[in-house]
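User: Hey, my collaborator sent me this sequence without any context and asked if I could get a structure. I don't really work with proteins. Can you help?
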Amino acid sequence: MKNILVPFDFSEVSQNALNYAVKFADQDPSIHLHLLHIRTENESEAEIRQKFELVLQKYDHPLNPKLQTLVMTGELISTIIELQEKLEVDLVIMGTRGAEIDEEDFVTQTSRLVHQADLPVLVIPEKFQKFRLNTIILSVGQEHIADRSPLYVLLEVSRKFKAQVHVLTVQKTPVAVAYSEVDESNENTLQYYLEMFYSHHSFSENEDIEKGILEYIEKHDIDMVAIMPNTHLKIGEPSEGRLTRFLTLHSNVPLLVLD
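Assistant: No problem. I've predicted the 3D structure and written it out in structure-token form, which is a compact way to encode the shape of the chain:
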């Protein structure tokens, strides 16, 4: 993981995401943080550069990663997708204000990004202002994991911080006593791809899968939740992205969308 892109509009939300990104880089000189600001009609480039100077001064420390700034015009999501190949972006770290639980149709730039972009996105909630990465929950469904490649990103994050990965499956029906063939296959996949960082697989029953995940996170002092929105799909089959959108808006801990 060498290039991390951080959308930055000088708000407290984006500042909080940048603080997390700097700590995530963890004194690794090989990681480059690229701060992207989309200029509006009311902003001059000179004004933006002046603001960026203050940001760069704040993080000017030998142990911090080098920050590089980008000022562009256009639409945020399409600009990020365009920069993905140009900068060889490995990960986007983006802040979010979230939404209330009953705001089903609430859409943010962050929730749009995780739905549209074909790259890993780490979403940092506005109120999450600490950095600790010991335990990650990977939420998977009851279907066969068809695309295993996103697990490499999770392994890289786990290896970097020596974080344990707890796998969680929330299901509406009563939890079965024995593993099914699909469970066995997924278990073997997770053990193989996550190596010694894989801890265990928990099964939980809840009529509301999304809320079941949030309850598990709250009860078990989790540092990050990870999801693989496209790994259970047959090639070419679209996803409505309900779980991804819900967790992007409502998770109280960082959400790693592995895409």
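In plain terms: The chain has eight helices and ten strands. You can pass these tokens on to your collaborator as they are.
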